[in-house]
Specification:
CATH topology of the largest domain in chain A: Rossmann fold
Mean pLDDT of chain A: 96
Number of domains of chain B: 2
Helix content of chain A: 40-55%
Largest sheet of chain B: 4 strands, parallel
Low-confidence stretches of chain B: none
Oligomer: heterodimer
Strand content of chain B: 5-15%
Structural class of chain A: alpha/beta
Order of helices and strands of chain A: HHEHEHEHEHHHHEHEHHHEHEHE
Number of domains of chain A: 3
Distance between the termini of chain A: 42 Å
Distance between the termini of chain B: 47 Å
CATH topology of the largest domain in chain B: Rossmann fold
Strand content of chain A: 5-15%
Largest interface: A-B, 52 and 46 residues
CATH architecture of the largest domain in chain A: 3-Layer(aba) Sandwich
Number of strands of chain B: 8
Largest sheet of chain A: 5 strands, parallel
Chain lengths: ~375, ~400
């Protein structure tokens, strides 16, 4: 196995076996771990406390026990998280942070106390009025409250310097990831849709410092290779996340390359930087204030559609793939607005309704195939598979 | 008020007038706002702005069976059937602008408060974008703690000031803080009278006629800051008290056999069916979590108190509050049972309902059932399932009553 394959396979291994990867990271760093629910959590503060932030974005567990708390029309990520919590799969975490971005997340917080009492919960609310001074002040107060909780868990005080160091590391991580996603089109075979996804996902289960080093190494190695000819279809993918394996395999089989993404699970985590001015917590609050095009954050201008159109243009993409997480109301509300704008811009669009646990990916596979064929034929007259 | 007419007639007149006046105002060039149901209407009333409430309008269209055409329109435009049906009806209406069941004027701006859910933020964002009109948002962070934390109060109060600035800009008028104090006084008094009237349902038999609560709710939603709203609830309370004094129950032709609470929004398209089955069995629906939701009462006349009040409603509070609230209702109203509406539209209510039901049952032993339905989408409700569940509830209530009698 060459060096590139080794790095990639180690990252894929981490992404495919989260619990094992997290436990290995804990052992390697001697840190306690804190689980982070979607969509944005103060990972920099967790890291500054000397703790390991771990992403909890569902999984492939069958849902049985969570049915005691949640109806079947609750989004699959949350049902699976509750299921895994009840099963004790998060028992090795020192706490979980659940931010109440949507109505479902509010309810998950409430249920968690009862359903998973063994895993300490730090609930959090991010302000929707994130751009005005009072919203920023509220968020900073929330950060301070959470910081205190984390200090108790870590058994240490977090200094301003700890926070600044952590922010610098996270800025490095975010910048590295932006570079990484930008080179995908040059190495579209090595970084096919599935591999790309798993590499990005691995970050949730590793120490960010060590992970960032790995990604930098990977990119250095890739740069030594000749660029790979991109003879597939270039797409921008949007949604909460793009899973399961069957879905990703279908993209790969149809040679669809993710030249850019707007997934909450991927680029929305790292496309926005902190500002340089202010205290550490102010800088973190600015990042939320400056973050655009996410369905979970209030935006009366609805910039989501234009953001997608810009991503298509900048990356010379052939179309947009919408991975609509079933029962996700914020995403479902954004769709009719950006759909209209994307159609007006004449960009082909593929709408896929997905769940994290899909009984059959057959329908999704067929639709991906049809879309790929349509793009290849270059028929732009009727260009939406909706 | 003319005592020859009933409060129900006054209520119906008021609601008709509310909509007629709003349409008239729009025609004569006045500004119209659309607002969410537990919005700090005090700010709008102070500015003398005509307000209509899309949730109330959607409920009206639902009850008059005119929702499907708007639901279909929303679906055609890409709105998932998974989304709140009030939102879908309203977004469909904003597009079609005409209903035989009753019209509302189109808004010049929208006013949204997420103390009822975060769904309204997304719904109103879309309206603002589609109609190209300004949006005012009051963000009331969800209360994980039992009480409203101080930093939330501060944040909400400062948003009131921000909203006042936006209102001054939209209307070109100065905000009158003295007038606000008057409006706050009326609003809090209206809320108190609403609470007082609805609390009279505790009498045995209850003077409430089944689904009355859902009808009178329109006024607490739409006219909380107006003197006429206050007068209506005063009148209604007097009327109910008279019935209590005469020992009158809900129905003239049959006694009140069981007393139940309804959790969640009504199934508007199936209002007649859902109420008939209860009545047939002598089950009187005497209360819900609504009386408390609109009991927006402030302890002083400042913006801090108002901020706290608007963040303190049931939907914005944690499970401990929600459960405690229902346990208290069970005791105060001597309930035999609870009907939980698993409302396909309302994830915030649904995804805590199972646990609320368990905890309330543990603490009170009260009989209860959950049925599947929806507030305005007729398709999500099955009459057969509802009947079966009510039958099961009857059996549980009967059994519990017999057990209690045999213990005596």
């Amino acid at each position: 196995m060459n060096r590139i394959d080794k790095i990639i396979s180690a990252l894929e291994e981490a992404a495919n076996h989260p619990a094992k990867a997290v436990k290995a990271s804990m052992k390697e760093t001697g840190k306690k771990a804190v689980g982070c629910f979607p969509y944005y959590t103060p990972d920099e503060i967790i890291y500054a406390a000397g703790l390991l932030p771990v992403g909890l974005w569902g999984g492939q567990t069958d849902i049985k026990l969570a049915d005691k708390y949640l109806q079947s029309f609750c989004c699959s990520i949350m049902r699976i998280n509750v299921e895994q919590g009840i099963k004790g799969m998060y028992d090795f975490l020192s706490a979980v942070i659940i931010p109440a971005y949507c109505d479902t997340l509010k309810c998950i917080c409430d249920n968690w106390h009862v359903a998973v009492p063994q895993t300490y919960l730090i609930p959090m609310v991010y302000p929707q009025h994130r751009k005005i001074a009072s919203g920023m002040a509220y968020l900073i107060d929330e950060y301070k409250r959470v910081q205190k909780e984390l200090e108790t868990i870590a058994g240490k005080k977090i200094t301003e310097k700890d926070l600044e160091d952590s922010i610098a590391l996270y800025e490095d991580y975010r910048e590295t990831m932006r570079h990484f996603t930008a080179i995908v089109s040059k190495y579209s075979k090595t970084l096919n849709a599935k591999t790309r996804h798993l590499i990005i996902k691995a970050a949730y289960f590793m120490d960010k410092r060590l992970y960032t080093i790995k990604i930098k190494e990977l990119m250095e190695e890739l740069k030594r290779l000749p660029e790979e000819k991109l003879d597939g279809i270039k797409v921008v993918v949007t949604g909460i996340l793009a899973e399961t394996d069957a879905l990703l395999d279908a993209f790969v089989q149809n040679r669809m390359v993710f030249v850019a993404d707007d997934l909450a699970h991927e680029s929305r985590q790292f496309r926005t930087s902190v500002r340089s001015e202010g205290t550490a917590l102010e800088r973190l609050a600015y990042r939320i204030a400056d973050h655009e095009g996410c369905s979970l954050l209030y935006d009366e201008e609805k910039k989501h559609g234009q953001l997608l159109i810009d991503l298509v243009r900048e990356n010379h993409a052939d179309g947009i793939v919408i991975c609509m997480m079933k029962f996700c109301n914020p995403e479902e509300f954004d769709y009719p607005i950006y759909k209209k704008e994307i159609e007006a811009a004449g960009i082909p669009m593929l709408y896929l309704e997905i769940e994290q646990k899909m009984d059959s990916a057959e329908q999704v596979r067929t639709r991906i195939q049809s879309f790929a064929e349509m793009i290849k034929l270059g028929s732009s007259s009727k260009s939406t598979i909706g | 008020m003319d005592k020859n007419i009933s409060s129900k007639q006054v209520l119906n007149d008021m609601i008709s007038r509310h909509y007629a006046e709003a349409l008239e105002a729009k025609k004569s060039g006045e500004l119209v706002a659309w607002a969410t149901s537990i919005v700090p209407q005090e700010l709008l009333e102070t500015m003398d702005i005509k307000v209509v409430y899309p949730e109330n309008h959607a409920a009206v269209l639902g009850a008059r069976k005119d929702a499907p055409v708007f639901l279909q329109n929303a679906e055609n435009n890409g709105y998932s059937n998974d989304l709140c049906s009030y939102a879908r009806v309203n977004i469909g209406y904003a597009n079609l602008k005409e209903s035989a069941a009753g019209n509302i004027p189109m808004p010049d701006f929208i006013f949204c408060c997420n103390n009822i859910c975060n769904t309204v933020i997304k719904w109103y964002e879309n309206l603002a974008r589609e109609l190209r009109i300004p949006m005012i948002l009051i963000d009331t962070p969800f209360n994980h703690t039992f009480d409203v934390p101080e930093h939330s109060v501060k944040y909400i109060r400062e948003q009131f000031n921000h909203a006042i600035g936006q209102l001054e800009q939209i209307t070109g008028k100065k905000f009158d803080h003295d007038r606000l104090k008057e409006v706050m006084k009326i609003s809090t008094e209206t809320a108190r009278l609403w609470k007082k009237a609805t609390a009279l349902a505790a009498a045995q038999p209850s003077p409430f006629n089944g689904f009355d609560l859902f009808n009178y709710m329109a006024v607490i939603v739409c006219m909380r800051g107006k003197q006429e709203g206050l007068d209506l609830f005063k009148f209604w309370a007097e009327e109910l008290q008279e019935k209590i004094d005469c020992g009158e129950g809900p129905w003239k032709d049959q006694p009140e056999k069981y007393r139940v609470m309804w959790d969640g929004i009504a199934c508007w398209p199936h209002l007649a069916d859902t109420s008939k089955i209860l009545r047939k069995n002598g089950i009187n629906l005497i209360t819900s979590t609504y009386p408390d939701s609109w009991t927006i009462v402030y302890d002083s006349d400042d913006l801090d108190a108002m901020a706290r009040a608007y963040s303190s409603n049931y939907a914005n509070r944690n499970l401990a509050y929600g459960t405690g609230n229902i346990v208290q209702i069970v005791k105060d109203f001597s309930l035999d049972g609870i009907i939980y509406h698993s409302n396909r539209s309302c994830k915030l209510m649904d995804f805590r309902q199972y646990e609320v039901q368990r905890q309330v049952h543990e603490q009170t032993g009260v009989a209860s059932v959950i049925f599947d339905g929806d507030q305005t989408d007729p398709g999500a409700f099955s009459l057969a399932q509802y009947e079966t569940r009510i039958q099961a509830l009857m059996e549980m209530m009967e059994q519990r009553r017999n057990e209690r009698l045999s213990r005596r």
